[in-house]
Amino acid sequence: NPTEGGSTSGGGTFNYGDTATVSATANAGYTFINWTEGGTIVSTDEDYSFTVTSSRALVANFSQDAYTITTSSNPTEGGNTTGGGTYNYGDTATVSASSNAGYTFINWTEGGTIVSTDEDYSFTVTSSRALVANFSQDAYTITTSSNPTEGGSTSGGGTFNYGDTAT
Question: Rounded mean pLDDT of 105-115?
């Protein structure tokens, strides 16, 4: 329970007084919780052994694994991210990055490794992840000149980041 949560083995026909062992194996993305009989927990061990004294109907219970996807911006003022949250194993998550004025999206990284260069990054959830949207500050070149050139000199040109004051 649920059926897609895993598989069981060990059921069958036994003589009175025999020792029976039933086993539960969780599928990827699920965790074994317990064995129940008629809604009552009889064991929390994946391998449950007991002395047979009557017919029994045992149910292996599994829970679907849930994972946390977190997103952040680097630098923080570079932009915004969405799509973080809790997802079940096998779900498709999509995280999105949007640049603030004066910044450009570069990539998504995880632990310093580039995982996508798309602002919208979709993936199948198989574990918790901490994703960082990286932005670069836009730079602009200011060129000054005199017209006519013999009329005087100019200064203050150069390369400036968005929001800087050029003097």
Answer: 97
